[in-house]
Specification:
alpha/beta; Alpha-Beta Plaits; Rossmann fold; three-stranded parallel β-sheet; 17 helices
Length: 450
């Protein structure tokens, strides 16, 4: 993974908001700054969405695509069906006209790839190739399983994603084409790097910035009332399930949000779930609430779902393709160090969390429990100063030391001044010879105190 999300150069300072929201804690802190741990990240985008800096953390291929267009190459776009929820174009025809203003040769909707993938899922269930099936459409979920639940990979559908299928379909339609996938997801960028049919992947956010720079406005073309395809439901919650034909004997369940997916995968790991198709998406609300949409507008989850509902229907595209659909997913298990219990206890003692009553598990550091944070400190991915109660207690202790030191210094100064005053007072009532002796003593007293 080529550093798709990065925090370098940002004004990141003692915030911990990203680690609080990272579902797999794939973030390292050093000197108060956050750093993505590439081999542990699933590219769900929560860190980008929640970061208060609102910076540009994501690598972009826009410059490379524009160079290919400028060179006269045939650049063709595969547009994620979530486009209807984020770009005011009204239909795929409007999206195509908009992209042609940017220099694209053609554009088509990836919902056609969704339809092909749905039919393949149905076939696998009908032929009893598995007794349980997890959808392989969401690349963040695929990475979650590959890295944190490799023992569950046997249930992950051995099927390419709609992006991969549709881009390969476009390659067959235009053999010399450069394919660009446009969608709401950062994890697709990594999937594109591993796919032969996908040359580039950009987000709706990048597309908006590109259009803004060239002063290109969306072209709105009203959809054809009779053009209502069920595969266009994919971007909404349970959209995949709703776009499939029920298979007798099989249950269908939709799960969205990484935390709920983690809970479901843990349940699957313990057994007892059979004859069930699980639609899993990393984003709550699915793709209409993708990270590259949430950065643009807060209302996309509700209005986006409504837009998808109005654009979709119950018909099929009737797509036929000879594109190879199979794709097997290799495990990429995350191997985190397991510190010795003595090391964990030593850190807890430093934090002042050596008793259950003091381990308040406030979560300010981003970890659910004080013990989890202590383990992260042992691994080198967290720091003592991330613990707010620890920092507060340290500050209070330091302030007490300062106050005590200040009082001691003040007492010494008062004693010194009192001695001077007493000596001067005695001078006033003494003879000249006696005054000389007293002044000499006074000089010696002052010098001894300096």
């Amino acid at each position: 993974m080529s550093n798709i999300i990065h925090f370098s150069g940002m004004d990141c300072r003692d915030c911990y908001k990203c680690i609080r929201n990272c579902p797999v804690k794939a973030i390292r802190y050093a000197d108060g700054r956050a750093e993505i741990i590439d081999g542990e990240c699933i590219l769900c985008g929560e860190c980008v969405v929640t970061c208060p800096q609102r910076g540009d953390f994501v690598s972009s291929s826009v410059s490379a695509i524009r160079a290919r267009i400028a060179a006269g190459e045939k650049v063709v776009a595969s547009v994620d069906p979530a486009f209807i929820s984020d770009v005011a174009v009204g239909s795929i025809e409007g999206m195509r006209a908009t992209l042609k203003q940017l220099g694209f040769f053609d554009a088509d909707e990836a919902a056609k790839g969704c339809e092909v993938v749905s039919r393949e899922y149905e076939r696998i269930m009908q032929e009893d190739e598995a007794d349980m099936l997890i959808s392989s459409c969401c690349p963040a979920v695929v990475m979650l399983i590959q890295r944190y639940y490799p023992d569950v990979l046997v249930y992950l559908a051995p099927v390419k994603s709609p992006m991969q299928v549709h881009c390969e379909m476009l390659k067959k339609q235009y053999p010399d084409a450069v394919t660009v996938y446009i969608g709401p997801c950062y994890a697709r960028k990594r999937e594109a790097e591993q796919s032969e049919g996908v040359d580039y992947c950009i987000t709706f956010y990048e597309l908006r910035e590109w259009m803004r720079e060239l002063k290109v406005l969306p072209v709105y073309i009203e959809r054809d009332p009779g053009d209502r395809k069920r595969a266009r439901r994919y971007p909404r919650q349970d959209g995949l399930v709703k776009s499939m034909t029920p298979v007798p004997g099989w249950n269908r369940v939709a799960i969205d949000g990484v935390n709920d997916c983690i809970a479901a995968l843990s349940e699957i790991r313990h057994g007892g779930v059979t004859k069930t198709f699980l639609e899993m998406t990393a984003c709550e609300g699915s793709c209409v609430n993708g990270p590259a949409i949430r950065r643009n507008r807060a209302e996309s989850r509700i209005r986006g779902t409504v837009a998808v509902n109005e654009y979709a229907g119950d018909d099929d595209f009737g797509v036929e393709t000879d594109v190879e659909l199979r794709r097997y997913h290799d495990p990429e298990p995350v191997r985190r160090a397991h510190p010795a219990e003595s090391e964990v206890q030593e850190v807890l003692q430093k934090l002042g969390k050596d008793t259950r009553s003091r381990s308040i598990n406030c979560g300010c550091c981003g970890y659910a429990t004080c013990r989890q944070m202590a383990v992260a400190i042992c691994r080198g991915t967290a720091q003592l100063d991330m613990c707010l109660p620890y920092v507060r207690e340290k500050a209070e202790s330091h302030s007490h030391d300062i106050i005590a030191s200040t009082l001691e210094t003040a007492d010494q100064l008062i004693d010194k001044q009192m001695r001077v005053v007493q000596n001067i007072a005695s001078i006033l009532g003494e003879t000249t010879a006696e005054t000389k002796v007293i002044l000499t003593k006074l000089k010696e007293a002052v010098q001894s105190d300096e």
